[in-house]
Amino acid sequence: REAGGIPPLVRLLEQGSTALQSDALEALTFLAENYDNSEAICAAGALPFVIELARSGANAQRSVAALGLARLCRSEASAQAAREAGGVSVLARLVRSGTAEQRGHAALALTSLAENDDDNLPAIREAGAIAPLVTLVRTGDNDQKEKAASALAILARNAENKVCIREADGIPPLVSLARRGTEPQKARAAAALWTLARDETNAVAIREAGGVKALVELVGGGTDAQKEHAAGALGNLAMEPGSQEAMRREGGVSALVALARDGTLEGRETAAAALANLAIERQSRVAIRESGGVPVLVGLLAERDSPSAPSDAAAALANLAGDTASQVAVRKAGGLPPLVALLRDGSDTQKEDAAGALWNLASGNADNQAAIIDAG
């Protein structure tokens, strides 16, 4: 890059023979693995030529060009420029009808485009890419399944895309991948289900496809990334009453309590948020308390490495305080002083959640009221 080698390579893409174009494309794709190089390549005007080779080049050129686009479109500006140059429709065509390698590279490129520019989320749907991505999750090879699940996880950030993925029958293969895929596939599928489950109709579909059991198993015995993503998915599913019941039946409450106690920081945060949603229902409140969740949540109130863990724990305790036995359990676990401390010294969000917890814990409970006063 510093030797000025990128502009001549870009000129070869535009003006060279087919053989020279292929050589230049391979060189630029290799260089684009480095982020600074990828930005320099885009600045040199390569994107339209790479997209044209992905559209109309020889098979080998289309495959390398799709991989090149995945590496080049890692900033908002480049992802936007690729869309404006027609890259979305080209990649959608490749993921639908390209060779096996082209489909995998195109799925990776669509992930980059979706991740780095929100305007690409509807554009990818409108180009017809969602159904072929679902097909890859269902019937692709291992590499294609992983890449397509990653793409769907990002695309599902858009509300209409959530619906489109469900209508393309994308939920059952994602659940299957979360249950029986490779380790990376399980993590990607759980991430996709996490986002999809924010839609209540999708939450029902995930439950009916056996997703609760698969996600609980990941929370209980997966890798750190699998645990975090699966806990996030269960937290969203917990807003759907039928899924709450399924979680209790499948041992999801105890698995989330264990993650909130023993997981990575990210896992503890996500588990606490999931427990907060679960604690909306009375039967789940009982299950959380009986699984030892109260002292675990009280411990998270003092977590200083995360702004969200104390807030999520306070929100969970606020919901748990809907019954007298949990009010008593929070006081006996020493939860009132750290809540008062959060109310006094925490961030605005932490103060709000702590105030809600203290209000609920004091409601109708004279012993808690006295203890809160004593705590300052």
TrEMBL record:
<dbReference type="InterPro" id="IPR000225">
    <property type="entry name" value="Armadillo"/>
</dbReference>
<feature type="repeat" description="ARM">
    <location>
        <begin position="251"/>
        <end position="293"/>
    </location>
</feature>
<feature type="repeat" description="ARM">
    <location>
        <begin position="292"/>
        <end position="335"/>
    </location>
</feature>
<protein>
    <recommendedName>
        <fullName>Vacuolar protein 8</fullName>
    </recommendedName>
</protein>
<feature type="repeat" description="ARM">
    <location>
        <begin position="334"/>
        <end position="376"/>
    </location>
</feature>
<dbReference type="InterPro" id="IPR011989">
    <property type="entry name" value="ARM-like"/>
</dbReference>
<dbReference type="InterPro" id="IPR016024">
    <property type="entry name" value="ARM-type_fold"/>
</dbReference>
<dbReference type="Pfam" id="PF00514">
    <property type="entry name" value="Arm"/>
</dbReference>
<feature type="repeat" description="ARM">
    <location>
        <begin position="128"/>
        <end position="170"/>
    </location>
</feature>
<feature type="repeat" description="ARM">
    <location>
        <begin position="169"/>
        <end position="211"/>
    </location>
</feature>
<feature type="repeat" description="ARM">
    <location>
        <begin position="210"/>
        <end position="252"/>
    </location>
</feature>
<feature type="repeat" description="ARM">
    <location>
        <begin position="4"/>
        <end position="46"/>
    </location>
</feature>
